[in-house]
Amino acid sequence: MLHPERDSRAAMSTIGTWVRGHQATLIGLPEEVDRTDGAVPVPAEKLADQSDLVVSLGGDGTMLRSMRLACGGKAPVLGVNLGRLGFLAEIDVPQLPEALSAIDDKRFTVEPRSAVRSIFHNQEQLAFNEVALVRRPGGPMAAVALFVEGHPFIHYVADALIVATPTGSTAYSFSAGGPIVSPRAQGLVVTPVAPHSAYNRALVLSEGEKVALRVLPASGDLEVESDGAVVGRLCPGDVVEVCAVPGAANVVRLGHTTFYQRAQRKLRLTGSTEVDRSW
Predict the structure, then answer these.
(1) Residues 60 and 133 grouped into a single domain
(2) Does residue 146 fall inside a structural domain?
(3) Is 7 a catalytic residue?
(4) pTM (2 d.p.)
(5) Quick one: pLDDT at residue 206?
(6) Whether residue 233 is found in the same domain as residue 122
(7) What is the per-residue burial (b if ≥16 Cβ within 10 Å, else e) of 20-52?
């Protein structure tokens, strides 16, 4: 899986050399094989079933796309960072030969990642970061009622309402003030963006609880974003059903870094300036 713009030639050369030396088969999406080292084209809907390993070359967006395509198959996803510091990536390009050999020798672990499924207008979307209901630029605020297990809990008036997975807790939800959640946790995080309410806290739900988001009459038209891509539009009265999908994809971990080390680096986390490190 290739980032659409970043230079992946060095990584593809390394992968191609490793594949030929281990009598493996390299496959790729039909629209991307011209940028690979001799990959066999395979349709997206068959990629998960025909793969033993999915290698994502790019950043977090490419990693999320790879996880969506790998969903339902047996292949774990190895994230390889190209250029910028990818939060979800496990290794950089120079580590590729060692990483591929370690995976071939079963010297790795897999980390299950949950997804969030949203259903509206008879369509279904799967996201590994978040689904968000977002007000249209220049339009009225998003007014959304939150139902848990069929019971009304609270309504939000905000710029947007985010329902994030633990993976997505460090993305849009974190930027809006939501908590950091371990990827080993299960459940969903509901976070309002710039809420017009005294209640401005995030809500953490268990993985088994069914959630419904009803667009209230006072709301403007809203756009539905799934992992950052606009996938639909809602009007007052529309309902989005949301649920967690545990273990929807698996990510390769080689033990080089922990989730908390990556969080510190990517989010530039520091302690209180009032506490000296010697305390």
Answers:
(1) no
(2) yes
(3) no
(4) 0.91
(5) 94
(6) yes
(7) eeeeeebbbbeebbebbbebeebeeeebbeebe
pLDDT tens digits along 88-107:
889 999 999 999 999 999 99
Residue 3 counted as domain residue? no
Of 37, 60, 227, 238, the catalytic one is: 60
CA distance readout (Å), 222 to 131, 139, 191:
12, 9, 16
Residue length of the chain: 279
Beta bridge partners, 251, equal 77, 111
Give the model's confidence band at 255: pLDDT under 50 very low, under 70 low, under 90 confident, else very high: confident
Is the domain of 151 the same as that of 221? yes
Domains of the chain: total: 2
- With b for 16 or more beta-carbon neighbours within 10 A and e for fewer, the 72-93 pattern comes to ebebbbbbbbbeeebbbbbbbb
Predicted local confidence at residue 259, as pLDDT: 85
* Amino acid code (one letter) for 31: E
Tell me the DSSP string of the chain.
Answer: -B-SSS--HHHHHHHHHHHHHTT---EE-TTTGGGSSSPEE--HHHHHHH-S-EEEEESHHHHHHHHHHHTTSS--EEEEE-SS--SS--EEGGGHHHHHHHHHTT--EEEEEEEEEEEETTEEEEESSEEEEEEPTTSPPEEEEEEETTEEEEEEEESEEEEE-TGGGGTHHHHTTPPP--TTS-SEEEEEES-SSS----EEE-TT--EEEEE-TT---EEEEETTEEEEEE-TT-EEEEEEEEEEEEEEE-SSS-HHHHHHHHHT----TTS-TT-
Average pLDDT of the residues of the chain: 92
